[in-house]
Design a protein that fits this description.
Layout lengths: L6 H9 L11 H21 L7 E6 L6 H4 L24 E7 L5 H9 L6 H6 L1 E5 L8 H6 L2 H10 L6 E5 L4 H10 L16 H10 L7 E5 L2 H14 L5 E6 L8 E5 L9 H7 L1 H4 E3 L6 H11 L1 E5 L6 E2 L1 E9 L2 E13 L5 E7 L6 H17 L4 E11 L5 E9 L6 H11 L2 E3 L4 E3 L7 E9 L8 H10 L11 E5 L4 H4 L1 E8 L2 H19 L1
Helix pairs in contact: 2-8, 10-11
Length: 524
């Protein structure tokens, strides 16, 4: 019989938690990370596909992005709720989930997700779910908060009974997530952050050229305002009628690191670069609200970035392709979307329609596969998305321009994963259709930005009650209706997300429109 720990042992563990591990970025950390990462390939091949395999998934929904840009998003901390769709993994009866967040989530929200599980009782799922919190609202990435709490890391390690069947999944991967994976002693389903450049705006343009994929004319690896002015001048000389360009920071997200440049009225003389540099601030409009040009270009100098022409077109769309890399040359096309962009110049991500238009979805999937294979050979891993601008030509055909790679989960990840979990279906990249397990087509209309000041004060339980009363709540029997996310941001910010699923694109949009009607009616 094993001996019980003494009081002294218990106190020692409480007041002297586990040592932090190797120095971040050190040779020792890199060697351990490579060692642990070998396990993810075995898991992807043998554990991921087996719904009855024992496993533990540690979920850290940290948006480890530039905090100055991220803090400009309303209710930013509640974006940690977007990966609650992964609670649907509990539908596999031997899967355990450990979910860590900055602040505790309401039990109402957790119960809502568990209610959506098919073939599993809420009680059974609850026994296999552990929710942990840092109880920290500060404007720091969640992963940084966890690393600053060795006792919390100890709690997570105690929940990992078999490291060989456990992995860490995050929103995006930076050196912080790499350090956390090493401290936990488990692999990370994502790309080593040493390959960050592959997913930057500049790195993406290089990859697109290598793959022979069309992209907007422009220049990358720009370091400062002078480089930006030089690029703008060269593009105007090449295209004398050019009116607008987009300036993008390498590590921007949701359009928050972008700015629109409009050429002033002057000729195309030899002194164009000097004129552009002298008037750069007054002709530049950052997408991020309340960001001055001085702030934008200071941040641009820190991140570096690109300039590319603004693609004109009477009819154009903003589709994306979501891919999964399991190992070298083991790639999968998970979905295509038509993204909904807002803001003054259509640079801000608002939501998405799934699947993308069947007229061009197969062509997008083919381009996505080329990029996925190229990235896999360079060592990329996990989920990522490629964004395009598609312009309809005079003959009715479409021309697609790849504009960026998001080497992480993104705004289209959680809506698709939610529908996949709810319907157990599959996206057919050859046809551009999504087919459920019962053989039916399904579509959705999704947004992260359902927002109105009228909605402030509405609690999650009240939202759920209204959706049931008005018949818009997702119905598992019909496989139609609206599923909510970001509910924690509703009461304070009047903001939430919705995925409206329907048997046709029209019915999906109908559920979405009806959801807004109900909210406006009940909150007026």
């Amino acid at each position: 019989m094993p001996s019980m720990p003494s009081k002294g042992d218990t106190l020692n563990r409480l007041f002297n938690p586990l040592p932090p591990g190797p120095e971040p970025g050190s040779k020792e950390e890199n060697e351990l990370f490579e060692k642990y990462q070998k396990g993810i390939f075995y898991q992807y091949e043998h554990i991921f596909p087996d719904k009855n395999a024992p496993r533990t998934v540690v979920i850290v929904p940290s948006l480890t992005l530039d905090m100055e840009l991220f803090s400009r998003i309303k209710g930013a901390v509640h974006y940690e709720e977007r990966l609650l769709c992964l609670l649907m993994l509990l539908r596999m009866p031997r899967t355990k989930v450990v979910y860590i967040s900055s602040i505790p989530f309401s039990d109402v929200i957790i119960d809502y997700y568990l209610h959506l599980l098919q073939g599993i009782t809420g009680h059974h799922a609850r026994k296999r779910l552990t929710m942990l919190s840092c109880n920290d609202l500060s404007q720091k990435p969640l992963t940084e908060k966890i690393l600053n709490r060795p006792r919390l890391i100890s709690k997570i390690k105690e929940l990992i009974t078999d490291p060989a069947s456990t992995h860490l999944t995050c929103y995006n991967i930076t050196p912080l997530e790499k350090t956390l994976a090493v401290r936990l002693g488990i692999p990370l389903f994502g790309t080593d952050p040493s390959m960050f450049y592959l997913g930057s705006k500049s790195g993406a343009r290089i990859t697109f050229r290598e793959c022979g994929i069309d992209l907007p004319d422009g220049m990358e690896n720009l370091e400062n305002k002078k480089d930006v002015a030089e690029a703008l001048a060269k593009l105007r000389q090449k295209y004398p009628g050019l009116r607008k360009c987009v300036i993008k920071m390498n590590d921007g997200f949701s359009g928050e690191g972008n700015a629109m440049y409009r050429y002033p009225e002057f000729g195309n003389g030899e002194d164009m670069e000097q004129k552009i540099l002298a008037t750069l601030d007054e002709c530049t409009k950052p997408v991020a609200k309340n960001m001055s040009c001085d702030e934008f270009y200071a941040k641009f100098t820190e991140m570096q970035g690109i300039v590319e022409i603004f693609l004109e077109g009477e009819i154009k769309t903003s589709p994306s392709v979501q891919c999964v890399i399991g190992a070298k040359e083991n790639v999968r096309i998970d979905s295509t979307h038509d993204q909904l962009l807002g803001g003054d110049d259509g640079q801000t991500y608002m939501g998405a329609v799934f699947p993308a238009d069947e007229a061009y979805a197969p062509a997008l999937a083919e381009a996505g596969r080329k990029v996925a294979l190229a990235l896999s050979k360079k060592g990329a891993l996990g989920r990522f998305a490629i964004d395009f601008i598609s312009v309809r030509q005079d003959d009715g055909s479409w021309k697609h321009y790849a504009i960026e790679i998001n080497l992480r989960k993104g705004g289209t990840t959680h809506p698709f994963m939610m529908m996949q979990f709810l319907t157990n279906g599959k996206y057919e990249d050859e046809t551009g259709a999504y087919i459920t397990a019962s053989g039916n087509k399904r579509y959705y209309f999704a947004s992260d930005n359902l927002q109105s000041d009228k909605y402030k004060g509405l609690a999650p339980d009240e939202l759920i009650e209204l959706s049931m009363y008005h018949g818009i709540m997702y119905d598992g029997a019909m496989q139609e209706g609206t599923v909510f996310h970001l509910m924690g941001a509703l009461s304070e910010f009047g903001k939430l997300g919705a995925v409206s699923i329907g048997s046709t694109p029209e019915r999906a949009k109908m559920f979405y429109d009806r959801t807004i009607e109900v909210l406006d009616l009940e909150c007026s």
